[in-house]
Amino acid sequence: MRRSVLLTALVLTAAAATAVPAAADPPASGYTLVFSDEFTGTAPNTSVWNFRTDVKAGSAQRPENITVGGGLMTINLKAESPQYQGKNWSGGGLVSKRALRYGYYETRAKLPDVGGWHTSFWMMAGDGSTTFGSQRRTEIDVLENDSVNARTIHSGVHAWNGTGDGGYHPGSTYDSGLDLRQWHTYGADWSETSVKFYVDGQLRHTTPYTPNQWTHDYLNIWLTSIAYPQTANGPSTAQFDYVRYWQKDYYLDNDGPAAYGYGETGGWHDSSVDGWNHISPSRYATCHTAGNTATWRPRLGAAGSYQVYAWKIAHSGSDPNARYDVGHSGGTATKRVDGTAGTSGWVSLGTYSFAAGESGYVKLTSSGVGCARADAVKFVRI
């Protein structure tokens, strides 16, 4: 009996030592889980992930360094002898094939226990073959840590112009007061105006970031660890328990990935006038012609109440009586918008109930006076 009790106690003690704390999840209600990997398999899911394969700083990144097992994804950080692609060390990582935008991103991670490894949970457009891709515009660093400083976190935003510098790099590097070699949860809530950074469910930093000055593009999720900025002190591991993304608000545009629900009838043309997102082209209907339509149909992840907005482009040649119809669960509501008055910006079309899926819509119809202009709409969860 005493032997059985002792063995049970030892098992419970071991389990407690390796236990992973509960997830933090989104900071408010109204979010819908859209993307996740719980790493419950026996290998990385290559239908979901690319491998990080670049050579940067002190290491080359190898796909074979990534393992999945026991509900964890592990980046095995290794010494290389002989050198691998000119480096004495190899790291690695996973980069999501799916690109996402506004919402709450979260992972739970345990960082390397030796110095010299730079581990990150971050988002940027790319496939893992380089961090200098021509398509990158926004980079959001939820967690960056150099393992020589086991308590230090950097969180922030970088604006890029492809391979060039966008000139905006706000962020915060701080002593978290935590031992990051133990399990902790890291999250970022990205909205149109800012990014809020969380550790273990507590807000630690907020960075302003608006689309009128810097392009808010669609981002891939990166879970990575490389030897940087100094040579690693020895082999180690970085581990991730899961990665999740929740969406609350839905933005539809007339171009790019957010144009999935956009359609036109009649005559429409590219405009030189920017829309709501920096360097985002808008469209205009054939001027002085009634009946041209532009329709945005969101793919709502959850039923609920949403406030609907359209981006009005204020211009002397715009339509002074453009008609917006909002199709919702209770029917159709109509609002007229004068595009010649005031300034460009979001105009509320009202708050309505919508079913999940693609049954809701916003439809713009030109009045025949001036030129109707179409750019974007948004559905903001209430």
UniProtKB/TrEMBL annotation:
Residues 20-251 form the GH16 domain. The keyword Calcium does not apply. Residues 1-24 form the signal peptide. Keywords: Signal. InterPro entries: Beta-glucanase-like, CBD-like_Golvesin-Xly, ConA-like_dom_sf, Glycosyl_Hydrlase_16. PROSITE patterns: GH16_2. Belongs to the glycosyl hydrolase 16 family. This is Family 16 glycosylhydrolase. The lineage of its organism: Bacteria, Bacillati, Actinomycetota, Actinomycetes, Pseudonocardiales.
